[in-house]
Design a protein that fits this description.
homodimer, 250 residues, alpha+beta, ten-stranded mixed β-sheet, 10 strands
C-alpha cells in the first residue's frame, strides 16, 4: 500500500529578534530550521518547509505562510498545530494549520504581499518597543513623508531601491498596489502592499521617506531613480527591527 | 565651600523580563542595581536610588518613580537623563528627570499607585505578547470577572490576598479606589488603583477573578475572605509577566 502524501499549509508568526532570518543555515537558528526540527520531532518525518519568501535577520512576521508534505503521519492539522506549538520556542507560533491541495505552493502561488514598517518618533524609546520599531528622535513631518510614499505606488523599476541592483532590468520591475502612512501617538506606520518585493526594498523605501523628511532626497530624485532605475540618489536602509511581514494573499 | 546636595526624581520604564526585580541584590542584575551603576558612571558619585516600591522579577513598569541625591555633580537634569539612557540597557529607560525638593521621597510621599494586569485570552499567544501577558486559553466571561472585581473595591483587610499573611491585621488594610476591566480583542486588561498594595496582592486579585470565572471561587467566598481576612478560600497567584506598574501619584 502506498499512501498519498498530504500537503499542509501553515500561518506562522514570529519575533525576528532571536533568529538569523527565515532561510535555513548551517548553525540551525533560523525560522525554517526551527520549523523543520519541530516537524521531524512531532511527525517522525523529515520535511522541507517552503515559505512565501525569506525574511532577514530581525524582521518579524505577523502572517508568514509556509507549506510542507508528510507521507506517513496520521496527525490531523489541528493535532499538528498543537504539537508544533508545544515544541517550538514561544517566539514562533503556528496560528493556523490546514490541508492544502498539491497544487498549492507557498512561494509560487503568492498573489501579493503586505508589509508594515513601524517608526517610533519620540525622544525616548519605550522598553516594549525595543527591537520592534526604528527609533527616530528628530520630529517627522507626516505630510512630507506621505508625498514621498505616493511616488512609489504603481509599476516601477525598483533597482535603485534594492540591495542587489546587479539584476537584469525586467527582474526588478514590481507593482506597489497600495501604500499608506498613519501616525498614532509616537508610532508612525507605513503599510505597503504589492505583487512582490526585492531584497531590502521595503526598508529602502522607508529610508527614502526619512531622507526626504530631512531634506536630503527630493521628490524629483525619487521619481528619477524609479524611472531610470539609477542608483545615484542618496540611499538609506531602515533597520530590520521595524519591519513586519503582515499578510500574504494567494 | 560646601555645596547643597541636589535631589533628583526620575520616571523610569522597564521591561521586567531580563531582570531579577527592582530591589538591589548581590548578583547586581536588578533595576535598582543598573540605575545605581549608571549614576555612578555618569556622575562619578555613589548614590542610593529609592523607588516608589519594589517590583518582583518579571514585573514591568510603565512609570516607576525613584529619587536619589548628588552632592558634587554639575550635570543638569536633562543632561543626566540623556547620559543615563546612553548607559542603561534599552530595557530600562528614563522618561523624565527633574529636581525634587529635599522633602520629596519616592516611597514615603506616595499617595496612590495604579497597576495594569494583562491577560491574553486566545488559543495561541502572539510572539509579541510573550512575557507581557498571562496566556489563558479557556474563554473568559467578562461579566463574571467584572462582578468579582467589584468586590475588591473599597477599604478591606487584604491579608487573604497577599503572599505574607503573617502580618498584623492593621498592616494589611488597604483601600482600592478604582478597579475596572476592559476587553479589546483577545486582550483582557484589569486596571486597579489604590493607596497601597501588599506583596503579590494585584496578582492574587487577578487570580481570584480567573478562579471565579472557572466556578472555583464564589462571590460570597471573596467577600468572606475580605471581611474575615481568612486564607481558606482557593488562592491563585497570576504570573508576574502580565503585571505593569502603570502610574504613581504623589
Amino acid at each position: 500500500v502506498t499512501t498519498t502524501p498530504r500537503r499542509f499549509k501553515l500561518i506562522v508568526a514570529y519575533d525576528g529578534g532571536p533568529f538569523a532570518g527565515w532561510q535555513s543555515q548551517v548553525h540551525g537558528n533560523t525560522i525554517q530550521d526551527h520549523l523543520e526540527r519541530a516537524i521531524r520531532k512531532v511527525s517522525g518525518e523529515s520535511a522541507r518547509v517552503h515559505g512565501s519568501g525569506r525574511t532577514d535577520t530581525g524582521v518579524h512576521a505577523l502572517e508568514q505562510w509556509a507549506h510542507f508534505d508528510l507521507n506517513k503521519s496520521r496527525l490531523s492539522p489541528s493535532e499538528l498545530q498543537k504539537a508544533l506549538n508545544a515544541t517550538l520556542p514561544g517566539t514562533i507560533r503556528i496560528f493556523r494549520c490546514s490541508i492544502a491541495p498539491p497544487t498549492f505552493h507557498a512561494r509560487f502561488s503568492v498573489k501579493s504581499k503586505a508589509y508594515r514598517y513601524r517608526i517610533w518618533n519620540a525622544p525616548v524609546l519605550p522598553p516594549a518597543e525595543l527591537g520592534r520599531a526604528w527609533h527616530v528622535t528628530k520630529p517627522l513631518n507626516i505630510m512630507l513623508m506621505k508625498s514621498a510614499l505616493a511616488r512609489f505606488v504603481g509599476r516601477h523599476d525598483f533597482a535603485a531601491f534594492s540591495a542587489n541592483p546587479g539584476r537584469k532590468r525586467e527582474e526588478t520591475i514590481r507593482t506597489i498596489t497600495s501604500a499608506r502612512l498613519t501616525k498614532k501617538g509616537a508610532c508612525v506606520a507605513v503599510e505597503i502592499e504589492g505583487d512582490g518585493f526585492l531584497y531590502k526594498m521595503v526598508r529602502m523605501i522607508v529610508g527614502a521617506l526619512v531622507l526626504h523628511n530631512e531634506g536630503k532626497l527630493a521628490l524629483t530624485e525619487i521619481s528619477r531613480a524609479l524611472d531610470q532605475a539609477s542608483g545615484n540618489a542618496q540611499r538609506l536602509v531602515a533597520p530590520a527591527s521595524g519591519l513586519f511581514l503582515r499578510r500574504v494573499r494567494y
